């Protein structure tokens, strides 16, 4: 099975990884894993002021700060995972990456905000569910 782990560096990412470790049917060296992070885009004015190369370097460094510990955790458990990142709104970017990579399962942690907060702020998990054709496992 080809599994995509969407991570954001929060405690909910850690909960998701803890869940996987306790479920050997999902967490097995027989599966292929990819770890993915969606980087929040900079405002257009800021992007123009600092330039595209500096901006790309910034996003690469920020993504690596999030992806490296997850890949290290997976490696300690015998899992060799690829990692990648893209810039954009998290929900749609995660869904698009999942579909373009032809993953069998997308796993992500959810903050589990209440209905009112989701109504006002939206939810990455809800956005992923609304636009993703890949099966999604949300860990709370």
Can you walk me through this structure?
α1 (11-21) links the parallel β1 and β2 (32-39). This protein has six helices and five strands, in the order βαβααβαβααβ. The two termini are 22 Å apart. It has a five-stranded parallel β-sheet with strand order 3-2-1-4-5, sandwiched between helices. α4 packs parallel to α6 (124-131). 49% of the residues lie in helices and 21% in strands. The protein has a single domain (2-139), classed as 3-Layer(aba) Sandwich (Rossmann fold), CATH 3.40.50.620. It is globular. With 140 residues, the protein is of the alpha/beta class. The chain has helices at 11-21, 44-50, 52-76, 90-100, 115-121, 124-131, and strands at 2-6, 32-39, 81-87, 105-109, 136-139. The model is unreliable at 115-121 (pLDDT under 50).
Helices and strands, with pairings:
Elements: E1 2-6, H1 11-21, E2 32-39, H2 44-50, H3 52-76, E3 81-87, H4 90-100, E4 105-109, H5 115-121, H6 124-131, E5 136-139
Helix pairs in contact: 4-6
Query: Compute the gyration radius: what is it?
Result: 15 Å
Number of domains: 1
N- and C-termini, Cα separation: 22 Å
- How many individual β-strands? 5
In short:
The protein is α/β, with parallel strands linked by helices and 140 residues long. Helix content is 49%, strand content 21%. It has helices at residues 11-21, 44-50, 52-76, 90-100, 115-121, 124-131, and strands spanning 2-6, 32-39, 81-87, 105-109, 136-139.
What are the defining features of this structure?
140 residues, 21% strand, alpha/beta
